[in-house]
Hints:
Transmembrane segments: 6-28, 40-58, 78-98
Protein name: AzlD family protein
Strand content: under 5%
Structural class: mainly alpha
Organism: Neisseria lisongii
Keywords: Membrane, Transmembrane, Transmembrane helix
Amino acid sequence: xxxxxxxxxxxxxxxxxxxxxxxxxxxxxxxxxxxxxxxxxxxxxxxxxxxxxxxxxxxxxxxxxxxxxxxxxxxxxxxxxxxxxxxxxxxxxxxxxxx
Length: 99
């Protein structure tokens, strides 16, 4: 059972995330982006993913380092969704196996 505090934090994060997406949509919907701006917008999801996993690059836990290696390999081969699924799955699996 999830605690009320966790539920409220989860709902707040959901609201902030969705609000930023809506803000970006309404701010940019009638504008034509330059080639440079399009490149920045395409790189943004990868930058967010790297910022989330970057602290684990200095981890001393072998299962996290293996999961990062697999995720980096997947990022060079597959799309973002498959990369995230491989990263989350390998982290969970190796975390369970190395426990």
